[in-house]
Every structure is written in structure tokens, then in C-alpha cells.
Amino acid sequence: MTPAVMDGLMPHLIDWEVVAIMAPLLGALAGLVMPRAAAGIGIAAVGLTTLAVAALSWAVTTQGARMMALGGWGAPLGIDLRADGLAVMMLAMTAGVGLCISLSALAGQRARPAAGRPGVFWPLWLLLLAGLNGAYLSTDLFNLYVMLEVISLAAVGLTVMGGGAAALRAGFEYLMASMLGALLFLLAVGFVYLRFGRLDLMGLADLVTPGDPAMAGVLALMLVGLALKTALFPLHWWLPAAHASATAPASALLSALVVKVSLYIVLRVGQYLVPPTEGLVLLVGLAGGAAMIWGGIQALRAERLKLLVAWSTVAQIGLIFVAFARSGAAGTAESWKAAALLMLAHAVAKAAMFLAAGRIKDEVGHDEIARLDRSPVRPTLAQFTFALAAISLIGLPPSIGFAGKWLLMEGALAAGYWHWVALTFVGTLLSVAVFSRVMVPFLRFDRQRGPVGEHQGWALADAPPLVLALASFGLGLGAAQILTMLEVGEPFARATGAVLGGAP
Amino acid sequence: MSGIDPMLPFDVALALALVALSWAVLAAADRFAMVVLFIVLGLMVALAWVRLGAPDVALAEAAIGAGVTGALLLATLRHLRGPEAAPAPGPVRWSVAALVAGVTVALGAVVVAVATAPRPEGLAGPVRDNLPASGVEHAVTAVLLNFRAHDTLMEVVVLLIAVIVVWAVDRGLAAAHDPAAGPEADGLGPVQAGYARLALPAAVVLGIYLLWAGAHAPGGAFQAGAVLSAVGIMAVLAGRWRPEAHHRAWARAVFGLGAAVFVLVALGVGLGPGVAYEYPPHLAKPLILAIEAAVTLSIAATLAALFFGREPAPVSRSRGRRP
């Protein structure tokens, strides 16, 4: 269908925003009806979506932010889609990471068709992709809620897809946490409508006055709902089991992409609604700091590799919230860039790490950390990928993780938050300790030897995670350009005078 | 306004009943009683929506909130055997308690603040002004299928995901009896068979009427789909129809039909001078009705499939056919 759209759009500009949402949706429907061809359809749909996102990114970076009114109605009656620097970064992150995970899933399904369950995986992942893209382009609170519903239900499906009682139990807990978070968010959206009579973020930005007590409460409700969905300490209890029991591609999708969307909505809400009161920001920062420490400690105690990686996600989400709360003297108007960079860093590195962990588990046959060095098979390429991803997550130069942490510390120091810098150092040391636990045994060659040539355990499936891990270094070198792109459309200026473009 | 609204005592009683029923649902010790109370609560909530002047929501609540959800919960009861689950571990209970307390405080503050603030005009005015251009005469349908069609498409997708997930879950589990299959056809009592014979055609007619009425009066795809799904549920319960493995391809097609027609229309109208979802005014009504008809079929099939609860297994794995 989408090629037809391109033909038909000759008279006016192609609405790449619509393609980015509808291409995966149509791919999912086609894959649902033709389960045997689901993998091919899925790769094609993800590829087309990536092309649309690339075209949109090009248009936004060269011509500025663009906006289109679905149905031609325009806000507040209808729903507008808007692509600015932040939205485009999230879309590009989703497309790039998603494409690599898709290729990895394809390689895995070739090797083990029954375990991969292509007829289930591809429709769910494509619907998830449609929801993610829809959320990043949305400018409407209720529309964001609907997208969150699509995303969480598809994510729960990906969690339980692996089968088994543990995955089911983890998926059920995830579903409950996610539904509760969605309901809190919806309740807050209802109050916003009751108070202001509209739901479009840009219109609301003009109506909301700082220090409005009603809005402070609404914002608190919204934040709790989103914190539940993004697993901010102490509302993180569902995450480790859910992310550790899914299949490797599903874990990578959940950890790299799904938790980011609620974080993104936090940034957007901070952008358009009342500038958060200082108390709320401090609370978010404290929760983030606690998450960094608690997630690190739990990762140190984890006995299985995937559980360790999942707990490190809890810690990294805490780091992103610390960045959002504390990296800049000008408050969230400045700190969001550090948070956005860290989101990108975590998405790329964590996807690489979960895929590599999945490869290690596939080759070695288990993922008990204590016994990883006792195997005759040494999946060295996957181990190398894991180490590269760990470097970015720890934040060593020249990775993108380093760029994000640098921005965080620079901003925090400029604002005089030196004790928050100290807290970040503690979190960083914890992650060094966590990943050393895994990497030290990788370097021991003397425990058990297999026949030469058989102990490598390389496969084509090692390529996508390796590409992702290398990308975190490439992105680190290009961090300055990413920061420039983030400012397109000035996401945190009151955006009433936004550049209109795209659809006529 | 002079005097007291004669409906006031009724409204107060209804509000009190809602609170009491909610408490009773949570406090009920027996699972079956809990589900029945929940269904009653759903009907009372539907009544409350009528009193609030929202007949569309009332219809949806009665059909989906009380009807289909009640049937789903009752079907789920068959899976829940054995003793009640052990209480949650301490940290979970404490964080839930802290969450509930925090939310209650925040909610109280918000309710007070919003109630004392001036009431905005809202979007009723713009909806009224643009209603003639929407292609339908009923404001709720205009919002759902035209002004905010993007939201509605994604809600249809949510239902689609639900059925994909349910099918995926059940296939991963050990073989159990078919969850919601009623007595075998030959064991059907005369009352059930007679009721099914009378009720099924009536439900079909009612569902189609609700779909058609949606263009100018309360009704529409979600309500019609819920009523039609009851046809499927009754047919399964009465043993008139048993989902088989070879129905799966058709079932998948019907599950996806609503979203597919919706997407194709939304993109198709974007080929012309407009953007996506921008129906040409003279075609708006037939396009909206086409979308609604397809979505109704999908909702009906999806809800019925959710009630049946699992992907119909191939014959070799189905119970009783091969020892």
C-alpha cells in the first residue's frame, strides 16, 4: 500500500510521518494474515519505515521542524503530528536499533524456527514500532495515551512470547504495572481536559501557568504513571524479571526501546506543561539516584547474565532521570539534552548487550555467570560485543555514553550540584564492577579447551549486535552533530510559533 | 434553576450504590461472587453514564464493561482452581500501599483544585461547528471516526494485539481442556438450545441496528461489535459452533480486517488533494460506514475469540479426538 501512497503523493510532499506509522502497521496486518511469510514482510516493513524516518530526518535537519494536521482539522479538534529535533532523534534511534534487532531476530529464527515464533514475533514487533513512531510524533495527550496502550500491550506480548511459566508470570506483572501506569496517566489527561478544555500540548503550553496547584497535582499523577511504565525506582519491581525472561530480540526491544517512550513523554510533558516545581524535579532526581545505586547492587548480586543486564537497565534509567533533574543551572530547559543523549546511548548499547547476551546463552547453552568460563565453546565475537557495549554503558570515551555523562556532569557542575556528580561517580563505579564480573571470566582461557576451530562460536547473528556496539562509538564521535540536531525546532522553547511545513 | 431536581434522590442512591458495590467487589471472599458483583457494578456504572448524559458510553459500558468482560471473567474462573494466592511479598505490598496513598493525596488535591477552578468551554463548540463537514450527524461518531480517527484506529489495533497475545500465550502452555467450550452439542439442554435459537437472530439484528444508528444517534462500531460478539459467545457456549484449527486463517483475516480497512481508507484519501484521514466531504459518510462495518466485524470476532480463549489447536492436539 505504501508504494501507492508514494505515487499518489506526487502532487504534494510525501508525509513521511504517516508512512513511519502506517508502514509497520500494514506490515503487521500482512504478517498476521500470512504467518509463513511474516519474517520477509517484517523486514520489508522495518526497512521501509527506516527509509521514511531517514527522509523525515533529512527534511527536518535541512528545513526545520514540520507539522501536519491529520484529517486536515488541526488542533485542538483534530490531532497534529510534529517532527522536531528530539522527535527525529527518537525516531532514528528506534529505526536504527529496531532494524539491527530485526536482522538479529531473523538470523535467530533461521537457526531455530520453532523458538523464534515468527508468526507471533513479527506482527507484535511491527505494531510496537507503529506505536513507538506514533508516540514520538504525537502532540496530543490522549493520543499519547492510546500509543502507550498499543506499546505496552505489544511489549507484554513480546515478554510472554518465549513461553514458560516464568515468562508468563513476569509478563503478567508487567501487564499489571503497565495498566496501572496507563490508568494514572489517563486520569491525569482527563483532569487536564477538565481544567483547560483541550488536549493538544502546544495549546496547553499557552494556558498553563507556573505554580498552578491543580496542575502540580496532575503532573504528579502523570509522573507516577510514567515512572511505573519506565520502571523508575521504587516502581521498578516488574522490570528485571520481564526483561530477563523474554527471548533475546524481545529483551533488546523492551530494554532499548520500550522504556524510552515513557521517558520521552516525561521530557515532553516537562516541555509543554507547567515548568515542573522544584520539589517535583528534586524528587525525580532522588528516585533516579536511588535507582542507580539499587540497580547496581542488584546487578552485582544477579546470578544470570540476562538478569544482570536487566538490572543494569534499572540503574541506567536512574541515571537518565538524574540527568533530567540535575544537569544544568537552567533546570529542565537545559538538562533535557543530556537526558536525550543518555537515552540514545542506552538504547544502542543495551540492545547490543542483550543481543550479545542472547548469543552467548545460545552458544554456551546457559547464562549462569559463575559457569560462563567453564564452557569449551567461547563465543568470542559476542563477548567482544558485550565488552564494547559495556564500555558505552559505563561511559568511557569515545562512546556516546561518555558524551551523555560528560554533558550531565558539566551541567551539574555548572549549576553547583557537585554532590550529584559524586552520586553519578558512585553509580559509574558500580557499573564498572557489574560488567567486570562478566568480562573477567571472558578473558580466562585456561579453564576448559575445546577442539581448535570449534570453540569460536561465531555466527552471522553476531553481526547486528556488533554493528550496534560499534555504532555507540560512531555516535560518540558525532555527538556534537546530534546535539545540533536536537535543537531543531527548539523543543523546549514555548513552541507556539513553530515552523509549519510538510503537508499543505 | 428553582426547586430540587426530582431525580436527585435517585442520583444520590446510585452514587452510594456505586461506592458500596465497588467495596463489595473488593471485599468479596468468593471469586464467583466477586465476578457477579463486578457485573452488577458495570450495569450500575452504565446507568450512571445515562444520568450523566452520555448514552454512547453507557451502551459501551453495558455491552463491553459488564457484558463481555463479565463473560471473560466467568470463563477465566474455570482456570482458577486451588487455594487463593499467597499474599504479595512485603516490599511489593509496601510500595503498592505507598503508591495508593500518594495517588489518593494527589487525586484529592487535584479534585479540589479543579472543582474550584473556572470551567473551560471545552471542545463541544468546535465539534458542533464542524459536525456538518464530518459526514455524520452524531457528534460522538464524528469525533471517533473523523476528527480523532487516528486514536480510534490505534484503539482497534490494541484489540488486535490483545488477541494475538492471547493466542501466543495459550500455545505455549501445556494442553488443558478447551477453556470456554460449553457442553457438547448432543448434551445441550432444551432450554439452552431454545434460548440460543431465539436469541441469536435477535442479537444479530440488534448489532446491525446499533452499527447503523451510530451515524445519527448513540451507537456505533464498538457497541455493535460487542453485541455481535455475544452471538459468537452464545454459539460456542450452546455448542452450535466449535472453533477448529482450519478456521484460524479466516479468523486472523477477520481480526485484522477492521484495522486494514481503516488504514487503507486513511491512506487512500491522502492520495487525493488532502492528507491522511481527510475524507472528501461527499464520500465521508459511506467511508465512515465502511470503516465501522469492518471494525464491527473485527471487534465481534476478536471479543468472541478472547472468550474462547485459545488458538484452536490442530486436530492431533485437540482433546478427545485422538487418544
Describe, in plain words, how this protein is organized in 3D.
The complex is a heterodimer of chains A (504) and B (323). With 504 residues, chain A is mostly helical. Chain A has helices at 2-8, 16-33, 38-63, 85-111, 113-116, 118-137, 141-160, 165-196, 201-207, 213-230, 239-245, 248-272, 278-301, 305-326, 332-364, 380-394, 400-414, 418-442, 463-477, 479-486, and strands spanning 66-69, 80-83. In chain A, 73% of the residues lie in helices and 2% in strands. In chain A, strands 1-2 form a two-stranded antiparallel ribbon. In chain A, helix 11 packs antiparallel against helix 12, helix 14 packs antiparallel against helix 18 (418-442) and helix 15 packs antiparallel against helix 17. The two termini of chain A are 22 Å apart. Residues 1-12 and 494-504 of chain A have low confidence and may be disordered. Chain B is an all-alpha fold and 323 residues long. Chain B has two domains: 1-85, no CATH class; 138-323, no CATH class. Chain B has helices at 8-27, 31-51, 55-77, 90-116, 124-134, 139-147, 149-171, 190-213, 221-237, 248-271, 284-308. In chain B, helix 3 runs parallel beside helix 11 and helix 7 runs parallel beside helix 11. The relative contact order of chain B is 0.11. Residues 179-187 and 315-323 of chain B have low confidence and may be disordered. At the A-B interface, helix 1, helix 2, helix 6, helix 7 and helix 8 of A face helix 4, helix 5, helix 7 and helix 10 of B.
TL;DR?
Chain A is an all-alpha fold.
* Mean pLDDT score of chain B: 81
Which geometry of chain B do the CA atoms define? globular
* Beta-strand content of chain A: under 5%
Provide the number of structural domains of chain B: 2
Note the run of SSEs of chain A as H and E: HHHEEHHHHHHHHHHHHHHHHH
Provide the gyration radius of chain B in Å: 23 Å
Low-confidence stretches of chain A: 1-12, 494-504
- Biggest sheet of chain B, in brief? none
**H/E element order of chain B:** HHHHHHHHHHH
Strand order of the largest sheet of chain A: 1-2
User: Helical stretch count of chain A?
Assistant: 20
Helix-strand category of chain B: mainly alpha
If interface size is counted as residues with C-beta under 8 Å from the partner's C-beta, which chains form the largest one? Answer: A-B, 75 and 64 residues
